[in-house]
Predict the structure.
Amino acid sequence: MLEPLSKTKRGLLLVFFCMLFIVLIPIIFFRSAGFRFGTDGEVVPTGGLYFNLDDRELEVYINGVKEKSKGLLSSGIFVSPLEPKIYSIEVRKEGYTTWLKDIEVFPRKVAEASPFVVPLNATTTEISPRILNEDTGLQTANPAFAAVSELFEEAASSTAATALALKNSTATGTATTSLRVKNGLVENGRTEVFIEGKNVVALWTGSANATPSYFCDSEDVTLCNSEIVISSAEKVKQIDFYPERRDVIIIADAKRIYVTELDRRAPVNSVVLFEGANAEFRLSESGELFVKQGTKYFSVPLE
């Protein structure tokens, strides 16, 4: 049978754990406040990185070192403490494009990043107007072709109506902007995106304090720019937001359709989705991408 500790030993243990508590608490608060000791013993403020990840198969590498996932229920990865400097980031997934970014970490600040990847060598499928009926052995109308055709017709009608309303409001002096015509305007929350010739312009219309990190290249949100300009090699014909994203857009110019991100930090990641002149695209309600070129329709995978 175990003997109880003597009163003296209990007192010594109590003193020991009290001293340990007194020593550890300042260290914990010191580190949680964003500080650590440098190699020369000086106090160094630290920062952190947070990655918004919508796919648990994404792997994050910081300066070539893979970061571990933070649990089954987490939708992101938080890395801290980090010495204030520029870090080279890679986000990978087998069979998908690699997302690259150089992100500067500032003292006592958390930098955010929202990587996106698309399938490598994805097969673009032409949607045939007619399909073989296996029961009769005869060619019949393809309902998928009819549905996609209707999708383009509905979107074209909506675009024409919007353009007419903008023209009328400009002529009568009731347009919301007196000098800047926002061609092809699309909105997502407080972010507006529109076309200016060979440029795509993204505007943040919300409060300065709520400016998303991708509009900023400084740790001070008051120094963020409310505008991002993306230049295309060809005249831009069409734009829209990537499904379920406010910081990624799809662009159709005279020669191709591609996806690119709204981010002032280099490098800007862009991926070609469809090669071909005079193509246009539509997104279904479920987020599927369809392309029209001449009289042909195509399905382009995004996942």
About this structure: The first strand starts at residue 35 and ends at 37. Residues 143-171 form the longest helix (29 residues).
